From TrEMBL:
Molecular function via GO: DNA-binding transcription factor activity; transcription cis-regulatory region binding
Name the UniProt record assigns to this protein: Transcriptional regulator, LacI family
Keyword hit for Transcription: yes
Pfam families named in the record: LacI (PF00356), Peripla_BP_3 (PF13377)
Domain HTH lacI-type: 5-58
Source species: Selenomonas ruminantium
Record flagged with keyword DNA-binding: yes
Keywords: DNA-binding, Transcription, Transcription regulation
InterPro entries to which the protein is assigned, alphabetical: Cro/C1-type_HTH (IPR001387), HTH_LacI (IPR000843), LacI/GalR-like_sensor (IPR046335), Lambda_DNA-bd_dom_sf (IPR010982), Peripla_BP_I (IPR028082)
Domain named HTH cro/C1-type: residues: 2-34
Entries under PANTHER family matching the protein: LACI-RELATED TRANSCRIPTIONAL REPRESSOR, TRANSCRIPTION REGULATOR, MEMBER OF GALR FAMILY
Length: 345
């Protein structure tokens, strides 16, 4: 029976410690001279006890690390479906880690994935910091950040400012002058800043009588629900949820208290979640294609891994969906008015 070669055998042959071999297998730092000795010992012994050793020979583990901010999100399933649709036919598998909306945990998870020998990392980021940029520039493996933008790194995101602007223009055209923007902290630059600023520009442009109040919520349904009373006290004609999830929490609160949407107050969101089409009234929203985003992110990673010359198309479409949750204040309100849909390229 053939004897199994161990890390200890490799270390003894290379004249180094087991921890040095382990660091080499985990892509950690050791001197160039020791790298050569460990590599030669691995080749001589045929050591291949796990995928790290395989990675030394093929320079790929066929593993992609994915860092998500949370799992209890409507968008996560669609995003992962898109990623899997592209990666699986290429023979890749994914390792998922969750940061719980913590930038520190996000960075920690990236380090863990690197140590596990993944070929590349996708990060659905809560915010790209200087340390995120440093890792992308110094690490040898490709990293693609989703949901945030920074010119110093590889990233892919929706045009949040354009989405916000489109919604602001629409509500202005519907005769609304006082809105509450129910949004998240500005630590999330895409949703907390860009989407809000885009809305402000579209809603308030060339109007001195337009007013927008801001109420901070979390991303989750319950935190939005708990802030709905504060929103109602501000007496806006429309509530703009930074995500559909926020808007659905507010809709639920209004429904429980007999507040007629949209006759008494209008509600809109961003995201295009399927549940927004079946609640009453159906939610007007800007729809994002998260499955397509996952597919494009995975294609981008493969492009970086395979060193192809042709850059993939990273443009993300926005679709404006007009439903029943907005009242046109320039017309008499009619119960059960017709529902229309329009598309924005």
């Amino acid at each position: 029976m053939e004897q199994k070669i161990t890390i200890k055998d490799v270390a003894e042959l290379a004249g180094v410690s087991k921890s040095t071999v382990s660091r080499y297998l985990n892509n950690g730092y050791i001197s160039v001279e020791k790298q050569a000795r460990v590599r030669q010992a691995i080749e001589q012994t045929g050591f291949q006890s796990n995928f790290f050793a395989k990675r030394l020979k093929t320079r790929e583990s066929k593993l992609i690390g994915i860092v998500l901010p949370r799992m209890d999100s409507v968008t996560v399933g669609k995003l992962l479906a898109g990623i899997t649709r592209i990666l699986e036919p290429e023979g890749y598998q994914s390792i998922l880690l969750v940061s719980q909306l913590s930038a520190e945990k996000e960075l920690e998870n990236m380090q863990k994935l690197r140590q596990q020998g993944v070929d590349a990392i996708l990060v659905d980021s809560v915010g790209i910091t200087a340390e995120h940029v440093q890792r992308a520039q110094e690490w040898s493996l490709p990293i693609v950040y989703l949901g945030q933008q920074n010119p110093a790194v590889h990233c892919l995101k929706m045009d949040d400012a354009a989405a916000g602007h489109r919604m602001g223009v629409y509500l202005r055209q519907m005769g609304h002058k006082h809105a509450v923007f129910a949004g998240v902290t500005e630590h999330d630059e895409a949703v907390g800043i860009e989407r809000k600023q885009g809305f402000l520009a579209g809603f308030c442009e060339d109007r001195t009588d337009a007013r927008v109040d801001f109420v901070e919520t979390g991303f989750d349904f319950l935190s939005a629900y708990n802030q709905a009373e504060e929103i109602r006290k501000l007496a806006p004609s429309v509530v703009v949820g930074a995500t559909d999830n926020i808007s659905l929490g507010i809709l639920r609160y209004f429904h429980e208290r007999g507040i007629d949407v949209p006759r008494e107050i209008s509600v809109v969101g961003f995201g295009g979640y399927e549940v927004g089409a079946v609640v009453y009234p159906a939610l007007t929203t800007v729809s994002f294609d998260y499955e397509l985003m996952g597919m494009k992110a995975a294609s981008y990673l493969l492009y970086l891994l395979q060193d192809k010359r042709e850059t993939p198309n990273l443009d993300m479409p926005l679709t404006f969906v007009e439903r029943e949750s907005v009242r046109n204040l320039q017309e008499d309100y009619v119960q059960g008015q017709a529902v229309s849909m329009s598309v924005m390229a």
